[in-house]
Amino acid sequence: ASYDTGIGMNRPLYYEWPEENNAYVYEDEYMFGNDMLVAPIYTASRNGISTRNIWLPSGLWWDVTENCLRKGGEVFRANFTLDEFPIFYRPGSIIPFYPVQRTVVTNPEEIILKIVPGADGTGSFYEDNGENQDYIGSGWARTTFSYQNLSSTIKQLVISPREGTFEGMPVTRTWSVQFLGISTAPQGVMVNGDETITHEESYDAEAKLLTVTIHSSVLDKEIVVKVDGAETEAT
């Protein structure tokens, strides 16, 4: 967290890649947190299309606009419509999102977890009261996540029991787990080793998106989501 490290959520690429010349050339690009790279568009569009050059550091990156893994270590030119924005996720990252809300709600009942393909990985979700300064002491909590590719077609997400306490913290939560880049419908989804555990699953072949929703789960218990027979989109 920025409070703990003194490093802002938005930070230039040369913080992490100081020896890469392109980290200085493409100084308008930035990291948002540890796992999201943003290449903002700030020039006028033509006929509803904006174009810009983008540099990605070496390795794999999930291209949100193209919905695929992209190899980094190079500069490429891309077009974007008015409703698109150049964002790239690290492979294996687990990124929490709030659902779309009409008003600002602290600690909503539902959290979306985007699971990015391309590697194993970890992530965490921090929360506090939001209306006091108890976070300066021990008034906060954190939930950690771990994602593994157990084989080419078996994926596993572990949501660990929440650690920490704060005033007014929720006792249960709905987790909407979105596995990105799933190119085939899964053969089975199990939660805590039991297919009868209350959950919903849906697969969108066009979006290559598998969503597993676990309703009203108790936050002090471990949750294991295992997906069988799901091919992942290749580069």
Number of helices: 2
Uncertain spans? none
- How would a textbook summarize the main sheet? 6 strands, antiparallel
Oligomer: single chain
The succession of helices and strands, N to C, reads HEHEEEEEEEEEEEEEEEEEE
- By secondary-structure content and strand pairing, the structural class works out as mainly beta
Rg calculated over all Cα atoms = 19 Å
Main sheet: strand order: 1-2-3-8-5-6
| Shape estimate | globular
Can you offer a commentary on this structure?
With 235 residues, the protein is mainly β. 3% of the residues lie in helices and 45% in strands. It contains two helices and 19 strands. The strands form four sheets. The protein has a six-stranded antiparallel β-sheet, with no helix packed on it. Strands 11, 12, 13, 14, 16 and 19 form a six-stranded antiparallel β-sheet that branches. The longest helix is centred in the first third of the chain and has 4 residues. The chain is globular. It starts with a helix and ends in a 7-residue tail after the last strand. The mean pLDDT is 91.
Features:
six-stranded antiparallel β-sheet; 2 helices
Question: What's the short story on this structure?
Answer:
The protein is mainly beta and 235 residues long. The protein is built from two helices and 19 strands.
